[in-house]
Amino acid sequence: MSTAPPLLVARDVSVGIEGRTLCAALDLDIRPGEMLAVIGRNGIGKSTVLSTLAGLRAPLAGSLTLDGVSLASMAPRALARQRSLLPQSHEDAFASTVLDTVLVGRHPHIGRWSDDSAHDVQVAFDAMARVSLTGFEARDVRTLSGGERQRVAIAALLAQDAPLCLLDEPVTHLDLDYQTDTLSLFAGMAHDEGRAVVAVLHDLNQVLRFCDRVLLLTGGGEWVCGAVDAVLQPDTLSRAFCHPLRELRDGERRYFVPA
Amino acid sequence: MQPAASGRTRSPRRALALPLLAVGLLLSIALSLSLGSVPVSPAQLWQIATGGDAGVAGDVVLGLRLPRVLAAAACGGLLALAGALMQVLLRNPLADPYVLGISGGASVGALLAMTAGLAGALFELSAFAGALAAMALVFGLAHGEGGRTPTRLLLTGVIVSAGCGAAVSFMLTVANEQSLRGMLFWLMGDAGVAAPPAAALWTLAVGALVCVPLARDLNLLARGDLTAQTLGVPVLRLRLAIYLIASALTAVAVTTVGAVGFVGLVVPHLMRLALGNDQRLLLPASALAGALLLLLADTAARTVIAPAQLPVGVLTALLGVPVFLFLLHRRQ
């Protein structure tokens, strides 16, 4: 587990929507170098918690600080250089090339009166290469498949180059091989590049394989947070997901399957 | 050279777009000034432009044609710029400046003034007040959970427009014969009875100056509120600013030349097809092309069946409908 000083600190944070408390009195330290999974049933509030951690939605109560500065007091552009967020879905109302869409990630780094520089373009090309999109730069994003479009969004997130990366279901639309590649990429960003990565995930076996810690939302505002091996136990998970889960072992590796 | 310039938003065509449109606009202004019941030669035009005395031709050009030419060009620019902004605000390439009920409100104000026999500045004031009232109504009613989302604004605008349409029909029904013709011309858009162009020119200049620094942020807003917000755009403030600017531009244009249709829809759309969706280029290009289009349409409106005149809105609609259908067909 990472021992660096925490990047994002939540103290006594309550998250709610339309009078419903999704997560009460959350205390959470997210440190550089770790990958934290957020899991729980559909509609339990994973995305809402994530956008609260991103500073896009004010918590009902409590304080959130990023690198010691209160999230609420940060200017949007300064915040955008510190944290990135991969949304669950992408709107493409207008035509745009893949390169232009990835360059959008550079926006917080480019001044109002400046144009994207050769460096920004190089960063965008490097990001595309990391998600196997080399050669796609001139394609219109509206002609891409769901999985390709998701990889464009991931490339934009990489181009944004923020120390805190928040990911809402980053691999849902991807083929199996890309799922593994992409999660390896994010785990590498945490473990090798020293970023803090928070990902909403659905596949418990991916959580076991790639993540260090997990935040499990169990409903009614309750939550459990801890090391993956401690939280991901058959009885806890069976209760949280309202379906019995069986644990299988293959040497050191554990797997969960629905019973 | 960059590895692949093809994916970038720049090309010679884009670099040339604004100068070409500006030259086209200047040529159209010259053409429009020289056409009419008193033909004016290019030599005479030059004489007038350089301050020489050209007799009757000078009076016709400066006193009659120039105000109308400037009004048509400025309002074309206003409508196209407002349309481009509305399309980003509503994130819908088929939105136009009237979609939020502004022309409906202005029409109600204008027809009320005509019914009451008002003319001149009072008439314009009434139309402008109608536009502002519709704008305030839509803005006030469109608020809800999640703020003023594109869908909520659009639905509220459509309903307010429908209400205004009913009020307009009522006033047309009860209007007397003399004012009916003027009302119909105004509703279709008519630069012939245009108000003085100064307000429209100033509004266009200020609007363009305010929009250009916002263009980068608008590029992000076009990609969705969440994306824009995540990347540091103050979305709620920007949406409010765009709404107010686009509404003000539209209100001034409608007050000056009436509810000219299709310029605000078709011009930004054509520019987007030709130049891409970079607002830094799209906004000024739309303003220039809108000015060019409405000026040419108005020139045709007052010359093709001279001495009679067509409402310019009829010509822009005759052009706009096929273009719109073509674009819609391409989208499918």
Brief digest:
By secondary structure, chain A is of the alpha/beta class.
Question: How are the SSEs ordered, and which strands pair?
Answer:
The complex is a heterodimer of chains A (259) and B (332).
Chain A lengths: L7 E10 L2 E11 L4 E5 L6 H8 L7 E6 L2 E2 L5 H7 E4 L11 H6 L14 H13 L15 H15 L3 E5 L7 H16 L4 E5 L3 H7 L2 E7 L2 E6 H4 L2 H8 L3 E6 L2 E6 L1
Helix pairs in contact in A: 4-5
Chain B lengths: L11 H23 L7 H8 L6 H34 L12 H14 L4 H22 L8 H25 L2 H12 L9 H24 L3 H6 L4 H23 L5 H13 L3 H25 L8 H20 L1
Helix pairs in contact in B: 1-3, 1-12, 3-8, 3-10, 3-11, 3-12, 4-5, 4-6, 4-7, 4-10, 5-6, 5-10, 8-10, 8-12, 11-12, 11-13, 12-13
Which terms summarize this structure?
heterodimer; A: 259 residues; alpha/beta; Rossmann fold; 2 domains; six-stranded mixed beta sheet; four-stranded antiparallel beta sheet; 12 strands; globular; B: 332 residues; mainly alpha; ABC transporter involved in vitamin B12 uptake, BtuC; 75% helix; disordered N terminus
Describe this structure in words.
The complex is a heterodimer of chains A (259) and B (332). Chain A is of the alpha/beta class and 259 residues long. In chain A, 32% of the residues lie in helices and 28% in strands. Chain A folds into two domains: 1-67 and 190-259, 3-Layer(aba) Sandwich (Rossmann fold); 76-162, P-loop containing nucleotide triphosphate hydrolases (Rossmann fold, 3-Layer(aba) Sandwich). Chain A is globular and about 55 Å long. The two termini of chain A are 31 Å apart. The model of chain A has no long low-confidence stretch (mean pLDDT 92). Chain B is mainly α and 332 residues long. In chain B, helix 4 runs antiparallel to helix 5 (120-141) and helix 8 runs antiparallel to helix 12 (279-303). The longest helix of chain B has 34 residues, at 56-89. The radius of gyration of chain B is 20 Å and the shape is globular. Classes of the chains: A alpha/beta (259), B mainly alpha (332). The interface between A and B is medium-sized, with 39 and 30 residues.
